[in-house]
Amino acid sequence: MNEIAKKLISWYLVNKRDMPWRNTTDPYKIWLSEIMLQQTRVAQGMPYYLSFINAFPTVHDLAKANEDEVLKLWQGLGYYSRARNLHATAKFVSRELNGLFPNNYNGLLSLKGVGDYTASAIASICFGEPKAVLDGNVFRVLSRVFNIDTPINESIGKKEFALLASELLDKDNPATYNQAIMEFGAIHCKPQSPLCNNCILIDSCQAYKSNRVKELPVKLKKIKIKKVYYNYIVPISHNNDTVLVKRPPKGIWANLFEFPLIESPKEITLSQLVLSDKLKQLGLESNTPVLYNENSIVHKLSHRHIYTKFWIIDVDEISNNKVSFTEIEKYPVPVLIANFIKDFCKNN
């Protein structure tokens, strides 16, 4: 075992956080945790993991659930394609593989929603296959220890780091090593304020010696943020019913529910809203919308910032897509909608 791997494993055995997926080698539970923790902090993901395990103790239970149940439990975690892929894979494993996950990297990689990192993590942790993981934490540790400024989000950088990660892997104990380097990056070699003065790798860390810790890793900015404006129409009847519609099966928030939406490239006024075709389609052109929130609610996604206003319209009754406010919390909705519902119900 190389010296860096030895130090990381020793550190991990003393400092690792106690998390439920670390007390098992069940591929279902490891897979579930890894999918949930993609682009999600442990503190945020933990309650969701526990809720899923409670609701769906086995892959067969998850496979039997309907999509709305899965999306509702996922509500608030974001990147909902993860939940849909999770459900699709559960059905495949349950029905086609008799509930048994593939026991090697290549087999795992064939599952929907499972990429190189997730396949490596499951293969090493559950089956002892010597496959090195490469996530944001590992990129950060390696780039700093070896003072590498090749961009991590370019193909040349991914290849360079993948080769290095594989060279450092403790092939006799890949499960512990992989978890050790990820945990070290998460709680010690942190993105901001890393604990350099009390670091087991300080003698090896080239970035520390060169005073470049804050500069690494290098990631090129490629995403252009687009501003969009959402105007949600919230009809409310005398019986306290409203309207929810299901979003398309592709795009952001696919298959989640929302109020009727008017999307625009810029902010629109009440007079523009009244003239919109959407109100005519809903049969509400003779009703006057009342703005619920004067200032737009800004919801930030990785590729767009959504500026949102909610417009309340009082109506006598609702016939199509009717949902009672007493039942509305049962529907899977984007967190933006969930926050509005919570605030509206509290104040009305």
From TrEMBL:
Keywords from the named record: 4Fe-4S, DNA damage, DNA repair, Glycosidase, Hydrolase, Iron, Iron-sulfur, Metal-binding
Catalytic activity annotation: Hydrolyzes free adenine bases from 7,8-dihydro-8-oxoguanine:adenine mismatched double-stranded DNA, leaving an apurinic site
Cofactor note: Binds 1 [4Fe-4S] cluster.
Database matches in Gene3D superfamilies: Helix-hairpin-Helix base-excision DNA repair enzymes (C-terminal), Hypothetical protein, domain 2, Nucleoside Triphosphate Pyrophosphohydrolase
Keyword Cell wall biogenesis/degradation carried by entry: no
Keyword Acetylation appears in the UniProt entry: no
InterPro entries reported for this sequence: A/G_AdeGlyc_MutY (IPR005760), DNA_glycosylase (IPR011257), Endonuclease3_FeS-loop_motif (IPR003651), Endouclease-III_FeS-bd_BS (IPR004035), HhH-GPD_domain (IPR003265), HhH_base_excis_C (IPR023170), HhH_motif (IPR000445), MIG/MutY (IPR044298)
Protein name, UniProt field: Adenine DNA glycosylase
Lineage: Bacteria, Pseudomonadati, Bacteroidota, Flavobacteriia, Flavobacteriales
